[in-house]
Amino acid sequence: MKLRVGAALFGLGVLLLVFAAGLPFYVAPSVTKLPYDLEPTTSVAEAKNAKFLKITRVDESVSIEVLQGDLVSSVEVIPQPDDTRDRLPTELKGDAVIWDVYQTVRRADTPDAVSQYSTELALYRISGAAAPWKEQWLNESGAEQTPVGNVSYSGQIYKFPFGTDKRDYQVFDRDLKRAVPAKFVGTEKIKGIEAYRFEQRIENEVLNTPEASLKPLLGRFAPGATSGQIVYSNTRTLWVDPVTGSYVNVREQQNKELRPDTGTATVLLDADFNYNDDTVSRSVETAKDNRFKIGLISFWGPIAAGVLGLIALVIGVWLVTRTNDGAARHRADAAVAPGTDPTQTRVDQEPVRDAETAEQPRTEPPAGPLTDEIPPASTNWKSEDPTVPTQRPAHGEVEQR
After folding, report:
1. Looking at the record, which segments are called Disordered (predicted)?
2. What is the Cα–Cα distance from 149 to 221, expressed in whole angstroms?
3. C-alpha to C-alpha distance for 284 and 152, rounded to whole angstroms
4. Tens-digit pLDDT profile for the chain (401 aa)?
5. Are 208 and 177 in contact (CB under 8 A)?
6. Which residues of 328-349 are buried (b: 16+ CB within 10 A; e: fewer)?
7. I need a surface site. Which of 99, 273, 324, 378 has the fewest CB within 10 A?
8. CB 116 within 8 A of CB 173
9. Is the separation of the CB atoms in 272 and 47 below 8 Å?
10. CA 89 from centre of chain
């Protein structure tokens, strides 16, 4: 029984050691990639007392005005596992995923949409950076059909890499249509989790605005101007979980101005968007859960499996060797008569006689047990045999013939 248990523990120990060695090399890389079947997520940011441009179209009439109030921005990310499987080119298969993303900015007091966009893009599964996919597109006007390939994404967009470093990263800006450096500025605690803080500063960048969109604005806010431009500034602060690369908090301080060639500038957008508390809490909890899974598979799992494997291996070897030693001793003892010691002779053991002696019974001498026979030299008797010496007479006794 002990031999079977020992062999089983030995095999279990070997299996656990192999498992411990394989976890960080074969299993861990699979959990540090964007999964194909990622659940859809929604992030909500709020801007209090913001200034914003509101364009309302009713039939043929268009109303353009700058309003002030609270805004709510919702960004919904919907992974597309079927498109990922069927539409990605060979060079991206297995390394990238396709996401559809929708953003809507609404007034907090009404359901009216202030602005919205939709896009489809491919992201690398490990780095989270945009992949060079020819079928990506961006729709900012709400048109029913969007030309495929009308945008070229680059850099980080909706997340950072797994294992984010303390360095600067290129982060894509949708208004500029290009990536701009986001500088690493330090670490901060966000609801109990350590996050890396990155800041991206965009200052007085002229946006590429179509003439058809610029003319109505000039006609409304600078009637005497013949040309103008929209100048964009933004300070984007990103708090990133360094293990998973996910955003745990985001802040965007946006500003857009219409600057005509004559007349005064008009603020079209002045808003300070911040993730609301529910989004931050949910992002932190998701990061904690994913951190635990990655740590379990990459670090704690191999250690635990290795320790248990060594313990099982040692106990198994001990049981097997102990059982073998006991069996050897049992075989040696079985070769010796029961109750005897092969290295000693017992004093109470019956002596061994030869066959002739053993067959003849012992007899008592005829003279009795006390005197036995008196030796001839000590007898007091006379003999006619001259060869036998006579006994000398005692003192005072006459020798008689």
Report:
1. 331-401
2. 34
3. 31
4. 656 655 665 566 556 455 555 545 555 556 689 999 899 999 999 999 999 999 887 777 888 999 999 999 999 999 999 999 999 999 999 999 999 999 999 999 988 899 999 999 999 999 999 999 999 999 998 788 888 999 999 999 999 999 999 999 999 999 999 999 999 999 999 999 999 999 999 999 999 998 988 999 999 999 989 999 999 999 999 999 999 999 999 999 999 999 999 989 999 999 999 999 999 999 999 999 988 887 766 554 566 655 665 675 566 566 667 665 555 555 555 555 555 555 554 545 555 554 444 445 555 454 444 444 444 444 444 444 444 454 555 555 444 44
5. yes
6. eeeeeeeeeeeeeeeeeeeeee
7. 378
8. no
9. yes
10. 30
262: nearest Cα among 212, 228, 214? 228
C-alpha distance from residue 168 to each of 185, 197, 238, 247, 308 (Å):
9, 10, 12, 16, 42
| 354/207 Cα distance (integer angstroms) | 127
- The number of residues in the chain equals 401
pTM: predicted TM-score of the whole model, two decimal places: 0.71
Which 3 state secondary structure label does DSSP give 93? coil
Evaluate whether 107 touches 68 at the Cβ level (below 8 Å).
no
Q: Smallest Cα–Cα separation from 122: which of 147, 141, 148, 140?
A: 148
- Whole-angstrom CA distances from 111 to 71, 158, 236 are 11, 26, 26
CA gyration radius, the chain: 52
Q: Rounded to whole angstroms, how far apart are CA atoms 353 and 140?
A: 121
User: Which string of DSSP letters, residue by residue, matches 137-158?
Assistant: EEESS--S---TT-----SBSS
CA–CA distances in Å: residue 349 to residues 102, 227, 289, 339, 357: 104, 131, 80, 12, 18
Query: To 10 degrees, what angle do helices 2-22 and 301-334 make?
Result: 160
